[in-house]
């Protein structure tokens, strides 16, 4: 593996993860909250992730595993790994309490002013949100890294999609901590720290797989990544988009994301 390729993959995970900082800045600088824009952006991110997972990542995983184990067994292993990825991220959601789970985002516009009444509770919510988002971002960092390592153009698309959905997570961390402590530095720091779990995930994943990175390993990991991304899209992005905006805004964003991903795959992959 060329070192430039590896560093490019790492840089994409840093870009995707630290988008939580963008969400933090939006929370500080924006006086007006635009739910329709957020809904469209989340729907767009879901469209990119679902399309690339089912059309590109799953297929590449199947091709890799079929080359090693044969067509039928390779397809079976790909399918099992895909649902294994779904099971992994679902287990993480199960372990993290709903009240602090970034995949169960509360309405930012409505909840923050109410929660100001209890600063201790608000600070606890922000801290637990940072921890929970960090846990969720760990496999997302691995997804971005593995995708970029195999195909830079594909990795870039994954990174952009994940970065978009990390923005509201940054708001979910920074807003309650800011209102509880009145410190922009603390709020930004914890938001920034939660996103840093993505490059950490890539770093750990690289050292776990580098010594036995072959077609079989790649296929299993890639299929699991596809499952993780589909689950995140269906469990987090689309429900949150529906909550913040009109149904058709979310679906329009979804279709636009799929269309942009399809065009990029036709032109660049």
Description of the structure:
The chain has 269 residues and is mostly helical. Helix 5 (108-115) runs parallel beside helix 7 (152-181) and helix 7 packs antiparallel against helix 8 (184-195). It is 87% helix and 0% strand. Mean pLDDT is 77; it is low at 99-106 and 108-117. It has 11 helices and no strands.
Number of domains: 1
Number of E-state strands = 0
Give the topology string: H per helix, E per strand: HHHHHHHHHHH
Largest sheet: none
**Secondary structure tally, helices:** 11
Mean pLDDT: 77
Strand content: under 5%
Helix content: over 70%
**Which parts are unreliable, with pLDDT below 50 for 5 consecutive residues or more?**
99-106, 108-117
Sequence-ordered SSE layout with sheet pairings:
Blueprint: H1 3-17, H2 19-29, H3 35-69, H4 71-95, H5 108-115, H6 119-150, H7 152-181, H8 184-195, H9 197-209, H10 215-244, H11 247-268
Helix pairs in contact: 1-6, 1-7, 1-9, 2-7, 2-8, 3-4, 3-7, 3-10, 3-11, 4-10, 5-7, 6-7, 6-8, 6-9, 6-10, 7-8
What are the defining features of this structure?
269 residues, mainly alpha, 11 helices, 87% helix
Task: Give a nutshell description of this structure.
Helix content is 87%, strand content 0%. With 269 residues, the protein is an all-alpha fold. The longest helix has 35 residues, at 35-69.
């Amino acid at each position: 593996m060329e070192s430039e390729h590896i560093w490019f993959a790492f840089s994409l995970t840093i870009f995707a993860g630290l988008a939580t900082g963008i969400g933090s800045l939006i929370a500080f600088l924006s006086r007006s909250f635009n739910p329709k824009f957020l809904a469209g952006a989340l729907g767009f991110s879901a469209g990119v992730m679902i399309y690339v997972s089912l059309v590109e990542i799953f297929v590449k995983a199947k091709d890799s595993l079929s080359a090693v184990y044969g067509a039928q067994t390779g397809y079976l292993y790909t399918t099992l790994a895909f649902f294994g990825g779904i099971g992994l991220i679902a287990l993480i959601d199960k372990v993290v309490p709903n009240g602090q789970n970034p995949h169960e985002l509360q309405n930012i516009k409505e909840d923050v002013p109410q929660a100001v009444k209890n600063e201790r509770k608000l600070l606890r919510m922000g801290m637990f949100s940072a921890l929970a988002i960090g846990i969720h971002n760990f496999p997302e960092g691995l997804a971005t890294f593995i995708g970029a390592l195999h195909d830079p153009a594909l990795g870039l698309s994954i990174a952009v999609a994940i970065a978009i959905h990390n923005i509201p997570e940054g708001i979910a961390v920074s807003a309650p901590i800011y209102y509880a402590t009145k410190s922009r530095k603390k709020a930004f720091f914890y938001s920034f720290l939660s996103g840093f779990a993505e490059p950490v995930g890539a770093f750990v994943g690289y050292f776990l797989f580098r010594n036995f990175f072959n077609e079989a390993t790649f296929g299993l990991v890639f299929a699991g990544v596809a499952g993780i991304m589909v689950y995140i899209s269906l469990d987090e992005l689309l429900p949150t988009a529906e909550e913040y905006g009109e149904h058709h805004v979310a679906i329009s964003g979804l279709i636009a994301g799929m269309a942009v991903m399809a065009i990029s795959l036709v032109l660049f992959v």
